[in-house]
Amino acid sequence: MASWRGEIALPGRVPMIGVTEAVTLDNCEREQIQLLSHVQAHGALLAFDHHLRLVRASANAQALLGVPVPALGRALADAEPWTAIREAVRLEASSPPQHPPLPHEHEVTLGGRLFDLIVHRIADEVVAEFEPRTPRSVAPARFAGEAHRSLDKLRRQRSIVALLEVAVEEMRALTGFDRVMAYRFRHDASGDVVAEACIESLEPFLGRRYPASDIPAQARRLYTVNTLRLIADVRSDPVPVAGLREQPLDMSHCVLRSVSPVHIEYLRNMGVEASMSVSIVVGGQLWGMLACHHGTGLQVPYAVRMACDVLGQIVAANVQSLLAGEAAQRAARAATLRSRLVERTLQDDDALSALASMADGLMAGFDAHALLIADGSKLSVHGDVPPEAARALLQWLDPDRGGPRTRLTALSSLEGLPAEVRDAMGKWCGVLALRYDDHAPGWMVLLRKEQVETIAWGGKPEKEYTIGPLGPRLTPRGSFSVWREEVRGKAVPWSAGDLQLADDLLGEVVRAVGTRHAEMSRARDQLLAVLGHDLRNPLQTISMAAHVLERGADASKLGRRIRDSSSQMQRLISQVLDMSRLQAGLGLGFSFEELDVAALVDRVADDLLLAHPGSVIERDLAGPLPAQADADRLAQMLGNLMSNARHHGELGQPVAIRAVREGGDVVLQVRNAAAAIPPDVAADLFTPFKRQAVGNRRNRGGLGLGLYIANEIARGHGGGLSYSYEAPFVVFTARFPARQAGNGSPGHPPSRD
Predict the structure, then answer these.
(1) pLDDT, tens digit (0-9, with 9 covering 90-100), for 553-571
(2) I want to staple 266 with a disulfide (CB 3.0 to 4.6 A). Which of 202, 237, 410, 476 is the partner?
(3) pTM (global) more than 0.90
């Protein structure tokens, strides 16, 4: 279908009917189609050296031009009818060479006929091409008005689809072709017909796809250099160009360059007698094409073709602008995503929690359907990915087990992966894996599902070797009916924008995780130093008490001191052990049972008063408060909160505790009179290893782990712990469901994934 399909010929030969040498895809790709040494029959070509001597001429030049043409090797006469032509050639020969060449158009009269003369310089030759003006040539004023209106319509479009739909309509109106199509090329160089304007009698091609092999690499290069190509009449015989030089003329920029017989056969199979293509070049790459077909020969005037070329450039500029707008919007969203993720990584308990909290934004930013986050032994799955698939993929990614050594791995299919990984992954064919932590190890893996699509190919895409009119060679498809193919096992590939976003995001997360590791390492060192110091005090007390007991002192008083010191040691060691379990991903461990939370709160308050007789506790307990909870862990959380309130509240002011039922939740509040906690401190309240908390002068026996562990206990109950300030009170609120998730039976902790 495509007017640009297969312009190929035998290497080093002039293509002729009857060639019997086999043509394959390999030598098609190598064919230098710019050196065919023939022109189309509707025009004539002359080439001159810098002395204005004729060095090449097409065989039809004298007959077409209607005047005697100088012999090869002779200079142009400075006399009519060659005066204007000589001046145009002289100016081109004396001008600095252009890369790429810049054609200049002139109007000349030869033999009583009006011609368009197109002159350009290639190496040391000036090429002059002559096209006779046709009756179809329109009045300049009328044509200029039509072209201006077309360009104005294009500039008004705000989407690529609308832009291409207007482009095909306007180009058909300007040229009179039976069919004009707009192609957009995919990542694999195949092309889709995304817009079409045609006469009613033609079968529509809108929505069909054509394989990448329809444009050989050398043709693709030419279409980026010479953006407009006209084939005026496929039934006319190509005209040879003879010359004095053995080296063939590079016809890359010639408007009359002839056509490969294979391409002619292709067009004839489609019932096309004339075609024109206008390239849409974006960023130096062939992004798309406007392709025109006609049922009879059609010589489009040069002025009209140039207007179409400008139209194509306007389309390309608008496409580039629209793509740049989309890229700018995506870059802004990516920057916001990165900054939020870095902030969460630095604030949250660990990288897994930070990434998990941003799962929806990450998947949306990458157009992914699922996300795996691994941090050591911990795994968080977002999406309907089977656990065995997640484990199999992470095991394959592990560089210690032979996985990729790069920090970023991108796959659009599972080809090449071990069979057991492919079987486990199933429909999850797109993988974008980012290793953000080498020590844990830490992985963020974005996944895309298999892209199952039915492609309406414009004929079966595989080319066939068959005996055609040109002999036993590669013959274009003779049938262009729709051939449908279902494609499986591939996901939408990760684009260059996806990979750039992933690389930028990875760098930010790696730096944030490294910063967090360094801060935690410093805080651990400080914590261990404080722990060592604080353990010496109760140990020294116990040791001294033992010596005094040996001498027969008052046993009851010393017993209380030994008990208090032992309790302090037990509390310090318990906090360190709980912190170690949490940091290792083991969890605190819960055993749920039916209990009365109000009674538990009352008991914890009594214990605090017994340990600290001078304290004042105000209680607001709403009768029996049945719930499923871990009594020991809940008592530990309440003890931490009430001890925190006693140490940090204003001296002499009471600690207030409240326990109520709100809907299906249990709500516990502990408040104390104090100034509001500064925002920078409040942001890290539930983070372990807070340097400002270790060695606090109001709580010299604490390690700064109490709120972190209390929050983990609340989360383990399916809820959470929050801070607020209700002047003049600092308030900590724990909220969790009275009935646990799952079957609601005691002894089973709620799911936190």
Answers:
(1) 556 555 655 655 555 566 5
(2) 476
(3) no
